[in-house]
Amino acid sequence: MKTYAEPARNIPVAAETEVLVAGGGPAGIGAALGAARAGAKVMIVEQSNALGGMATSGMMSHWSGGSTSPLVNEIMHRACESRSLPKNPNEGYSWCITHECLKSTLLQMMDEAGVTVQLYTQIVDVIMDGNRVAGIITESKSGREAIFAKVVIDATGDGDVAARAGAEFELGREGDHVCQPATLMFRIGGVDYDRAIFPPSFESYVDVPKGEIQALGKSILTHPAGHVLLYRTRIPGEVCVNMTNVINLDATDVRQLTEAEKLCRRQIDEMIPFLREYAPGYENCYLVACASNVGVRETRHFKGLYTVTAEDILEARVFDDWIATKNYFNFDIHSLKGPGLDEHGAQKHFRSKGAYTIPYRACVPVRIDGLLLSGRNISGTHKAHSNYRVMPICLNVGQGVGTAAAVAVKEGILPRDVDVKKVQAILNQAGVSL
């Protein structure tokens, strides 16, 4: 590959803060609010035009799993109280996400907490002081700038900050590095809710006049598409669709991401006619909107002081250094070969002893200081990741990590040296308990 030697230059320092959160998805939202409500000066940087990540720009249909935490419930209910909702919304579905309303709600909550929000900003490098992350380099309409912080929290999903800092990671599944498939979510309108079907999982088999809907999807839609997942919304006549499917994707490669976007849109053009013909209530459906980004389920798993395993989840382990509690979901491993559930996944047949905790150690990189991990990039196995990667659990982890960052700043110590008991005491006051 050809290279170009970029000339050295001085860049302006745009901001200096105590806790800098990189990424405005659920993990970043939890981290920013956790740190700010614990008394820290906080800034959050996001590449898109909105906070929320997969919950908003990614157009995820609903909050799934682990949604019993106070902060998740606060966000969910405040968004449902939005004055921008239809006058007569579909009732009884508070777990559904109304994307535009949630965008406004999250910005309002950041303002109330005193968090500085900067959107439209790409993180392109890190500032290192030895093995400590001291800040980030950004690119935006304002040019190339530096932001310094005492603690940086990587909530980018892919772990872009941690990777640039040299933190150790493994891509995808252990051994072969294959990642879970990606999906471009979309919404359709014109659906007759009185007759419509809403299969919520791969193991939801629904008989329709022309056959069973999952079997029809697999036989008619072009591989690797084929599963049929349709979700209610609070907008009359609208349904959120989770059916596009991209396998063998390394989402840390921009060229592969571009091809994934193109493939998903070709799949959508095939899915609308499929739903019109085979799904009752969808005879007059039409495309309303697509997500602003492909939904990436899995990329980098960073090596932390502890690695969360599937056994930890099945045994509902309570770690002494817990920073996120009451987490519950299934092993949602999408097939790495095509549509449906992977042979190692478990949805309908998932069995565990109850809710589990996330240990602080899994959020601390083994040898990089000044940096904490938040969300699906924490230290865990491929199978464990399929459980804790969902948005409410990522938000729970973020709240715990943000609180720990605030303690580190207040005491002038490195994040790895934080007394987790102090973090847990603050979380208890916020309603987080075992």
Account of the protein in words:
It is a single chain. With 434 residues, the protein is an alpha/beta fold. The chain folds into 2 domains: 295 residues, FAD/NAD(P)-binding domain; 105 residues. The protein is built from 10 helices and 17 strands. The strands form 5 sheets. Strands 1, 2, 3, 4, 5, 6 and 17 form a 7-stranded mixed sheet that branches. The protein has a 4-stranded antiparallel sheet with strand order 11-12-8-13, with no helix packed on it. Strands 7-14 form a two-stranded antiparallel sheet. The longest helix has 25 residues. The N and C termini lie far apart (52 Å).
Keywords:
alpha/beta; 434 residues; FAD/NAD(P)-binding domain; four-stranded antiparallel β-sheet
